[in-house]
Amino acid sequence: MSDTLRPDVRIAVVPVLDAVGLRLGYGGPPVLDRVDLQVHRGEFWFFLGPNGQGKTTLLGGLMGRVRPESGRVTFHGEYAQRERLGFVPQQCGLKPTLPTTVGEFVRLGLVGIPCRETAREQRLAKALADVGLDGMQRKDFWSLSGGQRQRALVARALIRHPSLLIADEPTSGMDLSVETALYQSLAELNRAEQLTVILVTHDLAVAARYGTHLAIVAHGRVAAGPADEILRSGKLEEAYEVPIAVSHDAAGVVSVQLRPTERTAC
Q: Could you tell me the domains of the chain?
């Protein structure tokens, strides 16, 4: 018998996570309703939308921090193991009165993961290098700039060697050059190691440049899919309620910007 599959036979690809019919809220009217979302291995997702529309609520629902009022979220395979999940919050929850080095802070990401000391040091060095903090493990964490602390937060997640990285606005407080370097590092990890990434941002241009998939969170709903489909669909204009132009240059780089409106002569 031939091992070649018949043309009508398809191999089912199991998603990393599967959200079906999610309704999320905090006891009153739902923040988000009827959310369907599938994320597959190696995809780079950006969650976009105006302030206060539910991006952080959606992350909370996916991670189990916000209990769905209806629907379900399922993690599959190795992604169901929490030690393979890395999370980057918006802000560091550590008290400033606690003396901490950068190395001690980043090693907190290894809590619950059995790991020999040699491997811990190797993981620490790689995580710091990935975010541009090479050789700073002995530096006082509280002497860092706000942007450097954000990079340390990302390193704390990466030291887990996650299969899935979820980050809520990880570039807050970073200057443009550092932000660009961090996105490039995450994009390289996504390509080279098939790291699956879900990231909240307000930067449409960054999402268009690096994202393989986008989720637009607005008006209680989520429009999700491949980046090129979402960018062409007009969903951005519906969400932000302003005219938005999407263009591609000769190299294929995507640009997103406000589209000028015509003025009516008086």
A: 17-93+163-258 (3.40.50.300)
